[in-house]
Each structure stands twice: as C-alpha cells, then as structure tokens.
Automatic annotation (TrEMBL):
<dbReference type="InterPro" id="IPR052209">
    <property type="entry name" value="CbiZ"/>
</dbReference>
<keyword id="KW-0378">Hydrolase</keyword>
<dbReference type="InterPro" id="IPR002808">
    <property type="entry name" value="AdoCbi_amidolase"/>
</dbReference>
<protein>
    <submittedName>
        <fullName>Adenosylcobinamide amidohydrolase</fullName>
    </submittedName>
</protein>
<dbReference type="GO" id="GO:0016787">
    <property type="term" value="F:hydrolase activity"/>
</dbReference>
<dbReference type="Pfam" id="PF01955">
    <property type="entry name" value="CbiZ"/>
</dbReference>
Length: 224
C-alpha cells in the first residue's frame, strides 16, 4: 500500500518509489502514455533552463540520480519543490496519494488560445495521483479526466485569467498529469464523478491543489 511515506523530497526533485509496478497513464515528459512503472519523479529546474535537447537532458538527470530509465516516469517544472503539496485520502478500502506543484505563469484558456500567439513562459501544474486499488483501463482514464475537471474548477474559483484573452484560464500550456494504480485491493470498474473513486479524487485533489494554488499566489503577491 502506498502512503505519504513513499514520497521523498530531495530539494531538486521529489520522487515516489513503489516496490511493485503501477498501472500508469500520463502525459509526463519521460515515459508518457500507458505502461507499468515503479519510480515517479517531479523535478524542478531553473527559470533559465534551456538545453538543446530537454528530453535527453532529463534522461541524463534521471540516471545521475540512480533511477532506471525504463521504470521511471518524470515531469519537469520551474516551481521550487518547497511549494509541493501532498495529501492522503481514503474511503473504506480505497485510498489515494496526491502530489501537486503549481505554477501559473503561462495560464491559458484553451477555448480562446487559437486567437492569440502565446509566447513560451514558465508555468506548469504537475499532478500525480496514486491509487491503492484495482482499476480497469476505463476507470484509469476516467480518473484522469476527473482530475482535469478539478483543476479547471479551481482555476475558475481563483479567477486565474489567460492574460492574452482576459478570460478564465483552463490550465497552463505545459500541464502534466499522471494517474497510477497498484492493481491490488478494491476493484473499480469506473472512475467517473459519481463513483466512489471519482468522489475521492474530487475531494482529495480539490483540497491539495487548492493549497498549492493559494501558496503560489501568496508567494507571487509577496514578491511583486
């Protein structure tokens, strides 16, 4: 069973290691898509980060940290890992572990993004949700969709705007998300908003990401 004790913060990166492979679906920078992985990394880089090949540089960093490339899912952000927020939530025999970092420097309204040129800027919302339970592929994907719904609602409640369109942002242009399940314990055929799993993700991610967003906004306010 995964708990918050599986998450280690090394300053430059945060990692969760699992003894057994987790069924995973993600948009991570390294090893995106569907597969089974045991190491999950969220790495922070400097604002001036601009290598010739970011993917190759990320692979070198993973190896330098001692993690196997084939078993590692990794994301990148310019948000300092001291602003990372975690949470553990449970409902009966199902529990989830959440890791979130939030940067809002390039907030975008996807419904209006076609109207403007958006110069690349730093700002990423990285979300990891680890589920102690058995999920079908359908449940895994529905859980991911539900997590994106939570993110969009939080941005709306905080009135985060796309600076180009002046409308409510739906995310940032470089968001990444990862859903991973242990494939042990309580079975979940579905993960939508009215299921046990969906409700747990809705509550847990809402609480955790709200803390992350509020921390980021307070930090930016204090550094104006």
């Amino acid at each position: 069973m995964l708990t918050l004790e599986n998450i280690k913060n090394y300053g430059e990166y945060i990692v969760l290691e699992s003894k057994e492979p987790l069924r995973t679906f993600s948009s991570a920078m390294h090893n995106p898509g569907y597969g089974e992985y045991q190491v999950f990394m969220n790495r922070t880089v400097d604002l001036s980060y601009n290598p010739l090949d970011a993917h190759e540089e990320m692979q070198q960093f993973i190896q330098q940290c001692g993690y196997p490339l084939p078993q590692t899912v990794a994301m990148m952000t310019a948000v300092d890992m001291k602003f990372a927020f975690t949470g553990f939530y449970e409902d009966g025999d199902t529990s989830i572990v959440i890791l979130v970092t939030t940067g809002l420097g390039n907030a975008v309204d996807i419904t209006r993004s076609y109207e403007y040129a958006h110069p690349p800027r730093v700002g990423t919302i990285n979300t990891f949700i680890f589920i102690n339970g058995y999920l079908t592929d359908e449940a895994l994907i529905q859980a991911l969709c539900g997590a994106v719904e939570v993110k969009t609602k939080i941005l709306a409640e905080h009135q985060i705007l796309d600076p180009q369109s002046g409308t409510i942002a739906t995310g940032t242009s470089t968001d990444s998300i990862c859903i991973a399940s242990t494939q042990t314990g309580e079975a979940h055929a579905y993960g939508g908003s009215i299921t046990k799993l969906g409700k747990l993700i809705g509550k847990g991610l809402y609480d955790t990401m709200n803390c992350s967003v509020e921390s980021f906004l307070e930090y930016k306010k204090g550094n104006r």
